[in-house]
């Protein structure tokens, strides 16, 4: 195991009383996995990651990280990990290559090795030709990849990435995902935080969903989605007064659950939503009711979150909507 944490708790003391940021987190990350820590703002992702990276002390709980005990051997942990913070760690005015070499020397890497390793990582992360550039002249995606070079320069076994793609455009995000997969293919283990559902889905072998400082779901993306039963169907009515009649038709469908009405929308869940629709539409039509629209969508990680917490992770650009009418 690359990370094995038990009962991690972190409480912050503030003027307005204690903030229970992390409330008993157990987690295991195997060697060579990409594990995503997914949750809304303020859920406790960064706090958990900072504890595992030795940057803040747990209030209670234990962990082994990269083969070393977090409490007894924080220096050993630090040697084995790379940590790429949300805000990055390069100065705008500095020269990219100098930042990398200085950072490596902090870890005791000699200058010649630092330059050789740094240049190799620049090639690997598509930063060729940018070694002498001022950091502030790099694009968002280039700067994020430079942050990753900084985190990798001492060849850690385990890399922590805090929201690696926040603020990047879709193309730069997809490009960074490729690079993160490349790191894993080279044998690194990656633990990242994200609040993007599509990122967790596309990139991670396993996902831990955290809310209010507690893990509420864990598993492979597909496993998690399978826990949510059925496709979600939304029927848009042209007239809200017809909702009771439509609800009645839906109630007669075998397997329909979670039937809800909200103004001009009747929604429900049903296995194989796509194949029951034609019959349903005929029944509604037979009653002389006209629909304004129909949507079916397969369970998403947001549905997993919704099922576990009763709230949405609210990430509109990542729902897999399939408009069928
Ligand atoms: N140093 C601190 N002092 C007081 N409260 C803190 C401190 N750091 C974090 N918190 C609080 O702890 C909770 C968890 O914060 P954390 O940064 O871990 O969440 P997060 O899931 O990483 O959120 P985000 O996605 O916004 O980064 C929040 O309520 C936050 O305000």
Can you describe what's shown?
Residues 3-237 form the ABC transporter domain. Belongs to the ABC transporter superfamily. Keywords: Antibiotic resistance, ATP-binding, Nucleotide-binding, Transport. This is ABC-2 type transport system ATP-binding protein. InterPro entries: AAA+_ATPase, ABC_transporter-like_ATP-bd, ABC_transporter-like_CS, ABC_transporter_ATP-binding, DrrA1/2-like_C, P-loop_NTPase. There is one protein chain. This protein is elongated. The longest helix has 16 residues, at 170-185. Helix 3 packs across helix 4 (111-124) and helix 5 (140-152) runs parallel beside helix 6. It has helices spanning 45-52, 74-80, 96-106, 111-124, 140-152, 170-185, 197-203, 221-227, 243-251, 273-286, 301-309; strands at 3-14, 17-29, 34-38, 60-65, 68-69, 81-84, 158-162, 189-194, 206-211, 214-219, 231-237, 257-262, 265-270, 291-297, 321-323. The chain contains 11 helices and 15 strands. Residues 315-325 have low confidence and may be disordered. The chain is of the alpha/beta class and 325 residues long. Helices cover 35% and strands 29% of the residues. The protein has 2 domains: 3-225, 3-Layer(aba) Sandwich (Rossmann fold), CATH 3.40.50; 229-298, 2-Layer Sandwich (Alpha-Beta Plaits), CATH 3.30.70. A hairpin with a 2-residue loop joins strand 9 (206-211) and strand 10. The strands form 3 sheets. The protein has a 6-stranded mixed sheet, sandwiched between helices. It has a 5-stranded antiparallel sheet with strand order 12-13-11-14-15, with helices on one face. The structure holds adenosine-5'-triphosphate. Adenosine-5'-triphosphate (ATP) binds next to strand 1, strand 2 and helix 1. Adenosine-5'-triphosphate binds next to strand 1, strand 2 and helix 1.
């Amino acid at each position: 195991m690359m990370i094995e944490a038990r009962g991690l708790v972190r409480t912050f003391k503030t003027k307005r009383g204690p903030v229970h940021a992390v409330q008993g987190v157990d987690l295991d990350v195997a060697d060579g996995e990409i594990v995503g820590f997914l949750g809304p703002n303020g859920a406790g992702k960064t706090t958990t990651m900072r504890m595992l990276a030795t940057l803040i002390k747990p209030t209670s709980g234990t962990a082994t990280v990269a083969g070393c005990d977090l409490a007894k051997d924080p220096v050993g942990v630090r040697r084995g990990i790379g940590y790429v913070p949300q805000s990055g760690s390069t100065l705008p005015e500095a020269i990219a290559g100098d930042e990398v070499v200085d950072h490596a020397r902090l870890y005791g890497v000699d200058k010649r090795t630092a330059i050789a390793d740094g240049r190799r990582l620049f090639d690997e992360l598509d930063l060729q030709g940018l070694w002498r550039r001022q950091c502030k002249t790099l694009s968002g995606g280039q700067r994020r990849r430079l942050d990753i070079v900084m985190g990798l320069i001492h060849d850690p076994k385990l890399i922590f990435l805090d929201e690696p793609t926040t603020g990047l455009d879709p193309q730069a995000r997809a490009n960074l995902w490729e690079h993160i997969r490349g790191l894993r293919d080279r044998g690194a283990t990656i633990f990242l935080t994200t609040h993007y559902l599509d990122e967790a889905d596309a990139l991670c072998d396993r996902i831990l969903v955290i809310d209010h400082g507690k893990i509420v779901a864990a598993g492979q993306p597909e496993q998690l989605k399978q826990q949510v039963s059925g496709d979600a169907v939304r029927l848009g009515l042209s007239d809200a007064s017809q909702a009771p009649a439509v609800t009645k038709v839906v109630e007669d469908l075998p397997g329909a659950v979670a039937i809800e009405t909200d103004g001009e929308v009747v929604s429900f869940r049903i296995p194989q939503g796509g194949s029951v629709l034609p019959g349903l539409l005929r029944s509604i039509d037979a009653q002389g009711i006209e629909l304004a629209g129909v949507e079916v969508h397969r369970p998403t990680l947001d549905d997993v979150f919704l099922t576990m917490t009763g709230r949405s992770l609210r990430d509109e650009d990542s729902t897999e909507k399939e408009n069928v009418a």
